[in-house]
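With this grant's support, we have settled on a layout for protein records. One resulting record is reproduced below.
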Amino acid sequence: MSSTLSIRINPKTKKAAQKTLRSLGLDLSAGVKMFLEQVVTTDSIPFYTATETGHKLRYWELYKKEIAWEKKHGKSYGTAEEAFADILEK
C-alpha cells in the first residue's frame, strides 16, 4: 500500500533535482523515497544543511518564516522530557 505526498518546492530546485536524479538513473519520486528512508534509518536529517563553504541555505529567509509560524502555532514543550513523553506516548 502506498500513500501520496504533496510538497511545495521552488520550480528551479525541482528541475535541478530531476536533472541530477535522472543522471543517477532515478526519478524524483525514487529520490524522495530514498531520502525519507534515510530519515527513518538514521533518525535524523541525513545530510549537513549548509553549503560546502558553510554558508547558509539559499532559502533561509523562507525557512525562518516557517519556523516562526511553527513557534507561534505549533506544539511546544517546556523540557526535553515532556517532548519525549509525548513522542513515546503515540
